[in-house]
Design goal:
single chain, 3 helices
């Protein structure tokens, strides 16, 4: 296997930081009782699955960032709907 490029390493770090931010947001919304338990569990499960996939495929930067940013966007949108329901 070849040496990773600096861009691959940077994108992997950015993606990992987004996943950490998602963990804080999921736990924060749950602890503030903004969302129901099922949404916290579903969000945590999605985060865990994406983190596991990212650990094995961190050199695929386009998919890595797409999954991280997509999870953030979907979580925000559904949280707004679920919190106001």
């Amino acid at each position: 296997m070849s040496e990773p490029t600096p861009r691959q390493v940077l994108y992997a770090i950015v993606s990992a930081a987004l996943l950490v931010v998602m963990l804080v947001l999921i736990l924060g919304a749950a602890s503030a009782d903004l969302v129901p338990v099922w949404w916290t569990v579903l969000g945590g499960l999605a985060l865990l699955l994406i983190a596991i996939w990212s650990a094995f495929h961190w050199r695929r930067t386009a998919r890595l960032l797409m999954l991280s940013i997509g999870l953030l966007a979907v979580w925000f949108a559904v949280t707004l709907v679920v919190a106001n329901a």
